[in-house]
């Protein structure tokens, strides 16, 4: 819609007025910040002068401690104030650059018309209490995202407010100047969105605050469900909605919720960095981020070498001709399935009525309580007591026994030898103890003997402490041996647990698992089931400080993994986002979907959302990529113009590399900032990178699983590491039928192609993949060389 010049001028005048107000505030806040800062410097410099220090007796010590605490409190109050002022300054600076992005004129029924301007934070004119800017998260702001002009309503804590929107205006303001201004009607084509999406990417994700879509807004503002599940097409804004939702929750619950109470599970370490600028852009601190692998490593400790998911996927894609491959694949799928969960349940019941496995309790270089003695103690406990309670009782008993045994040890000769190696501080401790007991007179025979006894106790305590810790941490319980027992005899599950329908290759799966465990290594697929068994026996260390968990790329998680996360964070709400068309891990069944997640908290506590419209790629790219999946109708393109993807078949690898170089050159000249050559595996990626590096007059970045950050430019990456990330231009290194024709490779190819924002070029060494061949011919341009 065109705007009369006058209208534009009036809006710019308002921007200028708001910026003057921001400047006034900034001057005041900067003054306050420097005052508080000099207070802090003064307090730090004079800390010890202002504290009264006297350690001459108990009363003085007490007063000294109180005085130090008082001074520390003053200091930390000033530091907090400084942080808060600094945060306000940072937000105001962002507002100064771009005060707002939207306006609605709204008449609440029975009230006067109001102009509402939306930005990343609220700003009130202190003279007349007028809202110059409304925070986009304020209740009234939802009108902007939810309705076109016409009747509209929004919810507030006090009830629903109804009225009419007369005008909905979008702005692009940079550096205080209005660059564009659109009024949106009911028409679909969203000019601002087109403009935003048409931009080049860099290596960091952006906030979508100005153009949040209605269906995304429902996810962002959901407050009632314990579990929010989002199934969304590639590029439909799942990650974006998740990050905006975090910002929303931080605003909505600002009195009780902090960024450190929110945890995001990311697909890989590079993704952590990729999304890390979104919340700061909105004036919020970043939530905590982790990967499931990090969680496993923290919980498993260093006792076992754990395979990572990328090594597992690399194996599944490259080891097809190796012996044992089929068994391992079947094992990966089975160990992630509900059937295996049932098997573990039965095994747990079996253990409740049978024997556990124990380790000897160590003391010095030997054993103080052998495993079979622990087994006897355990057998003597009443079997009707629940297993975990019996384990607690056993632990108490063992600790008591260790204390008894320690007394006996004090009399042994090794103790005398060790007394001479004690520290000076141990002698002082013994002397003080004697003094305290008021038995120390002059040098008497009795006192020397008492001192020897005390020193003997100190020697033994130092050693026995380790054994007691060993028991208290339940390391005497050999959970790994119990997990191993499941596989040690392939008939065990059938005969002892009554499990039918074991996988066809169960004996081979058992052999592989045992062989791995005996090397003190753990396949990735064993890690979560093993931890679940371990925690059911030993109890679980829960984390109650986390109140919201977000899981992105959730299609790659198994039911075991969701259960495990739920057990660790028992109090939290969860937001789970995924796309089953991008399930690239071998454990995910081909026809998987996220509906099964409703069983996690029950359907009444769960809300499911679907995002169909894909924003990342141009319309021609989406028209092509949606044919790579089976449910193409669940993907709708956003009308952004661009070139059709190209598909080129070449017969020789040398020609392929030649062609890639030519293509990269054209893309660079066209101004694309991030150009990714996407390979199927890390192995292919290494080879491609070496070949390109030899020819390229520019740097080529090879992305490995350890990579945490990439720079704009040319990069070579295996598809499973590109999850969640996007690039201006994507080149598929080799999409031939050799590479992508099995069922599970369809989703891999779809994931790779959907990383492209503006340009997609597919190369095939030989004939193209059947997944491409079945796409309508008019959705791509074919180029035969
Ligand atoms: N409402 C929106 N306004 C502007 N840009 C948007 C919007 N929604 C999504 N986008 C853009 O679309 C792209 C894809 O978004 P995002 O990465 O959040 O999608 P996704 O569903 O997580 O994708 P994938 O499943 O492929 O990882 C990003 O560049 C994002 O900024």
UniProtKB/TrEMBL annotation:
Domain spans labelled UvrD-like helicase ATP-binding: 211-618
GO cellular component, one term: cytosol
UniProt keyword annotation of Transmembrane helix present: no
Protein residues bound to ATP: 232-239
Residue ranges the record marks as coiled coil: none
GO BP annotations, alphabetical order: recombinational repair
Native organism taxonomy: Bacteria, Bacillati, Bacillota, Bacilli, Bacillales
GO molecular function: 3'-5' DNA helicase activity; ATP binding; DNA binding; hydrolase activity
Key words, A-Z: ATP-binding, Helicase, Hydrolase, Nucleotide-binding
Protein's recorded name: ATP-binding domain-containing protein
PANTHER family: DNA HELICASE IV, UVRD / RECB / PCRA DNA HELICASE FAMILY MEMBER
